[in-house]
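Hi W., the copper (II) ion complex you wanted:
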Amino acid sequence: MTMEGDNTMMKRILIASAIAVSLVSATGAPAHDDKNHVKKEELRADDHAAALGKPGDPGKVTRNVVVEMSDAMRFKPASVRVKRGETIRFIVRNTGKVKHEMVLGTIKELKEHAGLMRKFPEMEHADPNQVSVDPGMTGELVWQFTRAGTFDFACLVPGHFEAGMVGKVRVGR
Ligand SMILES: [Cu+2]
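Structure:
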């Protein structure tokens, strides 16, 4: 799936992954859903993004940060410092031969999500806090860090998180 993918499809995938994530964290197992569920889970997905900020306005980017992802299962740099309030455009290069992704979150969320990816390896997502990048390609992720603290990012392609493909964002005042 490319970043230019069909909007309706993106929306559907976003909702599906939001449901999947919260169902697993709530009950430990996927369950069936109904229409009301979709609305509720969508809201919850927004809440969890709020822990470290919000999707950034591409017109208000204060700084570009280049991050390289490799088949060594590492991000370079693995640690990024930003000032509170900054809107960062992550320019995310995949120098490897397999797909990688950069997902922003707290380590707890990322762990839960990694477990889900092991159960559903074909799962695709398009949440605003993540970018998937095909081998040899470059993707972008614009994020505004509205809270001070230390946050995490990880590659949630099955096995990659477990292999140590993680990094940190330190948000100072
Ligand atoms: Cu990876």
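The pocket of copper (II) ion is lined by residues 69, 100, 155, 157, 160, 165 (CB under 6 Å).

W.
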